[in-house]
Amino acid sequence: MKVPYGTLEDDMESAYPYLSKIISPQDVRKLSDKELAELAKEVRQAILDNVSRTGGHFSSNLGTVELTVAMYAAYNIPPDKVIWDTGHQAYPHKLLTGRLPRFDTLRMHKGLSGFLKRDEHELDVFGAGHAGTAISAALGFAAARDQAQGSEKVVAIAGDAAICSGMSWEALNHAGELQTDLCVVLNDNRMSIAPNVGALTNYFNRLRSRPQVQGLARQAKKVIEKIPGPAPRIAAGLRHGVTHYFAPEETGTIFEEMGFEYIGPVDGHDLPTLLEIFRNIQEVRYPVFIHALTVKGKGYDVAEEDATKWHGVVPFDLEQCEMPSKAAAPTYTSVFGDAITELGERDEKVIAITAAMPDGTGLNGFRAKLPGQYYDVGIAEQHGVTFAAGMAAGGYKPFAVIYSTFLQRGYDQVLHDVCIQNLPVRFAMDRAGLVGDDGPTHHGTFDISFLTHIPNMSLCAPRDATELREMLKFMADYEAGPSAIRYPRGNVPDNLPEGRTPVEFGKAEVLGVPGIRRGEEGNVDAVIVAVGSMVAEAWDAASRLTDVGVRALVINARWCKPLDWESVAARLSPGTLLVTVEENVRTGGFGQQLIDLLVEHEQLPQRVKVMALPDAWVTHGKQPIIRGEVGLDAAGIVQTVRASVLGRGLA
Ligand SMILES: Cc1ncc(C[n+]2csc(CCOP(=O)(O)OP(=O)(O)O)c2C)c(N)n1
Predict the structure, then answer these.
(1) Between 20 and 30 A from 79 (CA), which of 174, 384, 639, 648?
(2) Which tens digit of pLDDT belongs to each residue from 607-638?
(3) pLDDT digits (tens, 9 = 90+) for 397-407
(4) What is the DSSP letter of 100?
């Protein structure tokens, strides 16, 4: 395939003659429509050039180019505001707000965030990362404007998957009642990361396939007459021939019934039409809903053909249109996917539930082999949790497979619907710990704290692939109550000793001291109790410590709840340093809970170090970099142990 617009040149001005001069949307407003068309081409080119080098969200951004250019030309930004849902499709926004020179740092440590962040740019008026928040936030901005008797316009833009989330509908419901000046743009490309699901998606498809008026001028008068409310500019637009974006059917759309002016479906890549619409609605002071049809991956053939594969990319060859194939080394996600499929094949009561993440959670194989045992609930984590509770109450074995960060959405459902009723829902939390490039909105660093304090819940964390499989098997058979498992992003480690003990409820595994036969460790200088992803780091650290004469015994915690304090206490002798290591915030985490139990049982040693995440947001960047920054890696553990042991003059 021919690359649409050539490749990046060093000189930004010659590569992007229009875009390189855009510092703010006010500069976009000054361009003629012809120049705006050129600008749109350059924005698409800049995304291709840069994201093929940095990696990042790709196909969603190619789909929002014309929408962004049109909005930023028509609105008066600032003070007008555009609030992006999720923010993964807002690269055109970044480029039109003066961030072209730094765009090659996208998602890199200390570089631009892959999402919107209020502290990155003043025109990132509302941060995001989780889906479904834009309409609520925009309505809040609109209400604040009304309180202050301001007149700036507010726009929310949400994808067809994000708008299906419950929160979006709560906001639409509220906006329809408030009847204030708010524009909601539905960026409908029919795709979530995977194809979008649900009855609303079917409804959007029906709206899409409505016969369009398409230039039939004789219909215009009829259409104008049907527009409720004072829409003089819209009518004027119609009179000027912009007729084809009005759904011609007799019945109102659901959005009209809810109090919005519905405009659409409109081709979201037809810049002249988009410009006309956004300019025409400037005088309208009530809720307007624009249904724009876009193509995910627009302008890059292979991404248009397989938008899921190109949703998020690693650096790839732009001209060859080839992405490096995924690393052969097994990841926690792939091991999970295989293991849950085996469990499902063996037991038809095993059910897998995803909230719009079949790819990310490794459930594609399960979906293909066991479609009857698989549910994609859409971006609806809260519903997904309670749906799982219902299935458990109905006698099935549901696994709610939800990233740690997105399960935060379902906290009350976990508490109220699952745990109070002690229902055996199994939670499989991928991306537990620091996720890397996606940054703070996506780090899964709270689940130990927010799950273990709920009565009836149990939580385990595997040290490697074998243990992940064992724990999942355990959970499938565990009917006494809810259970959860947390595992990180990335490859499974292979540096840990074999000779395992079977997984037992609430029991830790003593791994020993590297280089010393298990059981013959004798008195040790330090006991390192590590959780899940940190076990391999702790083992590595203990090996390095052995080299410098410090004897450190590693315990694989396995369970955060019930927490096996006794196995730890049994290995402590006077003067032993106790170190806990976890990829979770310190507050309410494993370390604090272990200390609490040791205090309770009068077993607390004199020296204790809790290695966990600080009470601060950890930025984005490659996992090893950010883990290193917070000391949660082998080097950090060595340093902590050595500093303490040296303090005692032992090494
Ligand atoms: C609460 C939540 N759940 C899941 C995700 C993961 N996620 C990121 S983008 C995305 C799909 C978004 O689809 P859509 O809103 O249609 O936007 P598009 O990418 O198609 O433009 C999902 C599921 C998320 N960001 N937030």
Answers:
(1) 174
(2) 999 999 999 999 999 999 999 999 999 999 99
(3) 999 999 999 99
(4) G
Domain endpoint, select from 454, 486, 518: 486
**CB of 406 shorter than 6 A to ligand 1:** yes
- Is 6 domain-assigned? no
Question: Catalytic: 409?
Answer: yes
Q: Which of 66, 83, 86, 309 to mutate to test the pocket of ligand 1 (most atoms within 8 A of CB)?
A: 86
**DSSP assignment, residue 416?**
I
Cβ(354) – ligand 1 distance below 6 Å: no
296 is catalytic: yes
Q: How many domains does the chain divide into? A: 3
Is the same domain home to 129 and 206?
Answer: yes
Query: What is the atom index within ligand 1 of the atom nearest the CA of 88?
Result: 9
Q: Which residue has the tokens 């990233």?
A: 403
Strands 56-57 and 312-313 turn out to be antiparallel
Residue with tokens 């619907």: 417
Q: In this structure, which amino acid lies at residue 57?
A: H
Using the mean position of ligand 1's atoms as its centre, give its distance from the Cα of residue 115 in Å: 12
What residue numbers bound the domain in which 284 lies?
Answer: 12-308
The finding on whether 296 has its CB within 6 A of some atom of ligand 1 is yes
Q: Catalytic residue, from 381, 509, 537, 582: name it.
A: 381
| 356 pocket-lining for ligand 1 (C-beta < 6 Å) | yes
Domain membership of residue 388 (yes or no) is: yes
Asked whether the whole model's pTM tops 0.85, one would answer yes
Q: Each residue of 6-52: pLDDT tens digit? A: 444 568 889 999 999 999 999 999 999 999 999 999 999 999 999 99
